[in-house]
Amino acid sequence: MSLIDVHTHYVPAQWPALGWDDAPWLRVDSAREAVIMVGSTEFRRIQSNSWNHAERLAHMDSDGVDTQVVSPTPVFFGYDRSAREGARIAEVFNDAALEITAPSGGRLIPFCQVPLQDPDLACRELDRCLDNGHRGVEIGNHVGDRDLDDPGIVQFLQHCADRGAPVFVHPWGMPASPRLNRWMARWITGMPAETHLSLVAMVLGGVFDRVSDNLRICFAHGGGSFAFWLGRFENAWHQRHDLLGTSEKPPSAYVGRFSVDSVVFEPAALRLLVDTLGVDNVMVGSDYPYPLGERPVGQVVRSSDFLTPSDREKIMSGNAERFLSLPVAAQ
């Protein structure tokens, strides 16, 4: 049974100076280790499998992964910069992604990033990338205080639908506070909350009502806490329709309009996703190569005895083949 991992990241080994004091840069400590720096602050330690395709392919072989979708690391989105700077950042990292994935014989599928703060430039960069070999796009779940129902972001999502480009939504820019700055709380609580909030914005902001239903969009980390709290969301929509009646239909009606990955770490959590969102809307993801991801990739899907062989095939590869529009020859 083939396995496609729709949620992995890369960091190029080098890139030109981005031109402002607190810009991300890479402190290379050895041939195999480096640190992503934001200005003078250490953001994340990484290893060479972040940029070395041979190491990545070896790990894929050991985990039984046939194909990876390789997306940007969100710290490089640059949404807080000017539109011109954001476009330059996207171009630099998108071209680097092609260099990293090109030698893989099609096993590494690049997703681009775009200057989402400017919808026209974002559409232009998406077009350039699709023409150059990227298959889809990763976006952050917000641009400052603008969520996914912002008119400019909706314009971009419709353009993705028109171009047939799959969209992978990754949380980023989690709020900081004394309570959230301990114990990696921004990652273990903030990321799920951010994803849930943006799915709420997609529903109540009427995005699914406005964007054509051929939009293929997937949310990272199991969609955050959305599946667990869908019942509460549904109840609120019916009981306080005066405040939440901004979508044409109740929240449950939009199940099936989006997918989520399987990075939830426990069979019980995976079962909730399958039972609530449907087996056709869950795909294997790992968050490789970062330490909060799943290794071996797909182990929860493989070990979940409630899945039928057909269910397992859909989650491991069939749903991703549809999401990515993989040609028959690649199946």
UniProtKB/TrEMBL annotation:
SUPFAM superfamilies in UniProt:
Metallo-dependent hydrolases (SSF51556)
Pathway(s) per entry: Secondary metabolite metabolism; quinolate metabolism
Keyword Repressor appears in the UniProt entry: no
Family, per entry? Belongs to the metallo-dependent hydrolases superfamily. ACMSD family.
Looking at the Swiss-Prot or TrEMBL record, what is one Pfam family this protein matches?
Amidohydro_2
The record's section on Gene3D superfamilies has: Metal-dependent hydrolases (3.20.20.140)
Under the subunit heading, UniProt states: Monomer.
Group of enzyme by EC: lyase
Give the E.C. number(s): 4.1.1.45
Q: Which domain of life is it from?
A: Bacteria
Name the chain's protein: 2-amino-3-carboxymuconate-6-semialdehyde decarboxylase
Domain Amidohydrolase-related as annotated: residue spans: 4-325
Record key words, sorted:
Decarboxylase, Lyase, Metal-binding, Zinc
- InterPro entries in alphabetical order: ACMSD (IPR032465), Amidohydro-rel (IPR006680), Metal_Hydrolase (IPR032466)
